[in-house]
Structures are given as C-alpha cells and as structure tokens.
Amino acid sequence: MASVSSLSSILLLQCLIFICAATPTSPASTPENFIQCVSKNSELSVPVTTTLFTPNNSSFNSILDSTATNLRFLKPSLPKPEFIFTPLHDSQVQAAVICLRKLGLQLRLRSGGHDFEGVSYTSESQAPFVIIDLVNLRRIEVNIEDTSAWVQAGATNGELYYRISQKAEYILSQLEFARPWRRLVLGIRGGGGEALESFFGGRLNLFPSPEKVTVFRITKTLEQGAKKISKSGNKLR
Predict the structure, then answer these.
(1) Which contiguous run of DSSP H or E holds residue 213?
(2) Is 6 inside any structural domain?
(3) Is the confidence at residue 155, as pLDDT, over 70?
(4) How many domains does the chain divide into?
(5) Which structural domain range is residue 90 located in?
(6) 128 and 31 part of one domain
(7) Is the dihedral of CA 178, 184, 189, 193 positive or negative?
(8) Full-prediction pTM beyond 0.85?
(9) pLDDT, tens digit, 9 for 90 and up, residues 192-212
(10) Which of these, 98, 180, 195, 204, is most buried using a 10 Å CB contact count?
(11) Is 198:204 a contact under the CB 8 Å cutoff?
(12) How far apart are CA 99 and CA 102, in angstroms?
C-alpha cells in the first residue's frame, strides 16, 4: 500500500508540474512582463503610468483613435491591441520589438504619418498584437547651413512644415534614410515609413522654392474608375 501511495503521489506531482509548465502566460501579467523586459534591454527605465496603456486604462481608447484617419477601422467589433506602448527613447523601441517577439505578440508600429489602410493600429487576424506608438519621438532639427533636417518618425507633416518655415522658405524634395548598406529614397507624401520597415527618423534634403511652382490635380469619380485606382495603389504599397 505504501508503494502504491508513493507512486500515486509521484504521478500527481508529475501531472501538476506538466500543467504548470503547459499553462501560458496570463494576459494580465503580459504588460508587466513586457515592461520588465524593456527596462532590462533599454538605456532608460520605463515609467509605466505614462508609456503603457491597457484597455482598462481611461486613456486607452483616446490614444488608440488619436491618429485614425479612416472611421471604418474604429468599429468596436474589430480586434483591439493587448496594450499600447509609447516609448520615450530609441533604445526602448528596439527593446520593445525584441520583447514582443519573446512574448509571442504581433507588432504594429505607428508613426506620425497618415495611415488610411489602418495597418499600423489594426489587425485582420485574431492573433494578439501590441501597438508601439512613436508619438513621443517627434524631435525635428533643421540645419539651414547644409540645407537638411533630421526628423524623428513620430513627427507629423504639419510640425515638420512649421519648423522648416521658422528657418527659411524651403520645400521638401526627398527623404533619405541612412542605411549601413544602402540608401532608400522616397517622395514625401505624409505617410509613415513603418509600412516599409521599422525606423526612428530620417534625413531630409531641403531645396529652395522656385519663383514659379506648377501643380496639377486629376479628379476621378467612382464612375470614372476611382475605386480601381485606389485598389491599385494599395497593392503597390
């Protein structure tokens, strides 16, 4: 009987160990684990009350909807992020990407540019995801001497135009992203670079505005195929 009792105890203990090991991380503990991981892997400590917002936080919805430019992505039925993280330093962004991968969470990175497709703050799947909002990384430095400006990814077009107008009458021509292996040149349209890859900022070349500027606008209705043009643009993106 003693041996049977001991064997039963061993089997029960093994079952308990298996259950504990197989139990996934509790959703309630995910934000805490994330903050601990980011603090460990970044240069600055993370002030939780001002950088991390869960659905239970009163500011969650206002932050989530703050830069939404397409109302159809604000429907209550659409999946919402597990939490929103607003880093204060570049190193926290790098650490956040690493930590989300460790926690098995998908990433949505939102910059100061427009996002009519909602790819930076929504998800088409039911997989849990997190938004890293770069709203706090919006520093703009304009250097008139070498006709350039350094812009962090969280800055908006309006902020950028205003800062440039304070220095001189310059217009935007192209955006160069410094790469250790190449340079990527894009036309400025106000969209966020996160649609291409994760980055923290970019260098702008500024050129004097000519005396005469020629512009044109083509207007298309739905009957004239405007929907097809929009669909083609989304595929290219």
Answers:
(1) none
(2) no
(3) yes
(4) 2
(5) 27-133
(6) yes
(7) negative
(8) no
(9) 544 444 566 788 888 777 778
(10) 204
(11) no
(12) 5
